[in-house]
Amino acid sequence: MTLENVSCILNNYPDGMVTVDNMKVVKSPVPELGENDVLLKNLCCSIDPFMRGRMRENVKSYVPSFEKGKVMQVFSVTQVEKIGSAVTDINVGDKYMCFNGIEKYTVLPQQVIKGDGKQSLGSFTKIDQRNPIKDSFYLGLFGMPGMTAWAFFNKVGKPKEGETIFITAATGAVGQVVCQLAKLKGLRVVACASSPEKIGFLKQALKVDEAFSYRDFPDKKSFTEQLRKVCPNGIDIYYDNVGGYILDSALEVMNIHGRVIMCGMISQYNLKDKYQYTLRDITSRRLTLQGCLFNDFFPQCMGEFMQDMIPKLEKGQIIYKEDIYEGVEKAPEAFIGLFNSNNFGKVVIVP
Amino acid sequence: MTLENVSCILNNYPDGMVTVDNMKVVKSPVPELGENDVLLKNLCCSIDPFMRGRMRENVKSYVPSFEKGKVMQVFSVTQVEKIGSAVTDINVGDKYMCFNGIEKYTVLPQQVIKGDGKQSLGSFTKIDQRNPIKDSFYLGLFGMPGMTAWAFFNKVGKPKEGETIFITAATGAVGQVVCQLAKLKGLRVVACASSPEKIGFLKQALKVDEAFSYRDFPDKKSFTEQLRKVCPNGIDIYYDNVGGYILDSALEVMNIHGRVIMCGMISQYNLKDKYQYTLRDITSRRLTLQGCLFNDFFPQCMGEFMQDMIPKLEKGQIIYKEDIYEGVEKAPEAFIGLFNSNNFGKVVIVP
């Protein structure tokens, strides 16, 4: 008896907002098992925002583009249903976390599952079924989103008790974990989502301190006012899952030495043009943009600085150009010169 | 005989681009010395871009606003010319780095100089005259700009031999130091300034690898093309002193894990409106914007993650909301739902 497969393929690349027509569901017979093949029954497949980035043709990114006409590969949990006669070390019933197609069944050579073969995306990781974790949790709480939430929150956010964290897409795959980790750590949690139902969930189930719908504040100005109201002591950590004007608003309300965890920018993924000032690239390139002020480094670095620089000056390794103005009267001119490139070197007034 | 003083006061607050009329130079007699007073002859005063930020009325910032009608206080080197009869531990000839007015002379109570009194800005730091450093260098190479260059480059930039650094305002008070530190450290240095004269200085005196005038590339598109040409391996560190479209261009050419040292945004300081996406605030608030990708944290954090999270789940400290779709057919709908807030919780397909 031939099994029937149902698969979701990429139909074509979206131009701007993704539409239903960009994907297509097709039926096909599941191929016969070769002696080295494994028949997998996919238990669950994950749908994640970063998939949108893969629906672009020939774009260099940290994950390859989906191919037109092919099944879309996503985070999945799959279970071995049947094995070929020559398959070893893989048993019926084994479960794996993997990248696999959005489809009912998949037939793969055993090498791929064992990691001997080549697979474009992450390897198959066998699930320890003694863990008290249901299958789908390997795609969520214990999968990429949950691990993302945990790692970015702890390692990048460096949270401290009593701080205020603001979280967008707060009921999403990542956000809800962040909300809870932050509460456990003793932070004041301000969360944002889209509907009254979600707001209720955030307040009642997750016990966040403040929750509101971004739909009530549809532009930067009103959103910023709302943020100032619900974050009277400013924001110490912004866990950004949305980008766009909400990121801009949060930046306005951030405290000194605040951390913006740029986890994703879902509001931007369907734009035809890039986000105007390329903030989006900060994420994909894992850039660190750190604002700096002199006050943060001195006087504590003074000694090290002098020790390093005086010999460099004495050895002539360092020269220094100055633009010296005689007379206090020149101060305005000297100052204006900073903005029209009229000065050359360090501007100094000799009064 | 009464000494005549010449002082530069803030005449009024600029509205947009600062003009000469915003400042005014005035003459006045130097007051008689009281028994606790010190007469200072100011040897040199620094003119720095951050002064523009102080020419705003009632703005909360890391340094207070200049006061209308008052002498503008700046980084200065000053020397004791005369002391009152009751002054102790301060001698004629002593030199200090300090914040002091842009003026010929200043009379101050000895407490201010000793740090016993209150001064709104940094304290008076006595200069060790045995150092082989000329006075004005305490405002430049060994003052705020030079220390800024050194600290931000080393501590924030974390430079590595062979990397490419891009530096704007490269002949300025900060930039020229960065260019040289970077060359000494074995980086490939690409520098930007405004005139052929400065470009010549960068190439011949500072020996940078590439230098060009931003005036030849007056918009984001042409500037980005130029950057790609002179940085064929991308930019690892951008030492940003200008902001605006040049920052936007540099972001496009940054390498993964690149560091943007946001030191200043001189192109923005005279704008009436804020920089559109508030990037400017990253500097004044010393924010760290760190783009994050899952790949950077896993699998290495996997163990710690599981150890921390499994007990939390078992204790019920963590709950997790899912939005489960039955059937591959639901995949498109589920995916679209990510962008229109129709999903609630972690989206999962059960195929």
TrEMBL record, chains A, B:
PANTHER family: PROSTAGLANDIN REDUCTASE (PTHR43205), PROSTAGLANDIN REDUCTASE 1 (PTHR43205:SF7)
Domain Enoyl reductase (ER): 18-349
InterPro entries to which the protein is assigned, alphabetical: ADH-like_C, ADH_N_2, ER, GroES-like_sf, MDR_fam, NAD(P)-bd_dom_sf
Keyword Oxidoreductase: yes
Top-level lineage group: Eukaryota
Gene Ontology molecular function terms on file: oxidoreductase activity, acting on the CH-CH group of donors, NAD or NADP as acceptor
Keyword Metal-binding attributed: no
Protein's recorded name: Zinc-binding dehydrogenase family protein
Keywords: Oxidoreductase
Pfam families: ADH_N_2, ADH_zinc_N
Matches recorded under SMART domains: PKS_ER
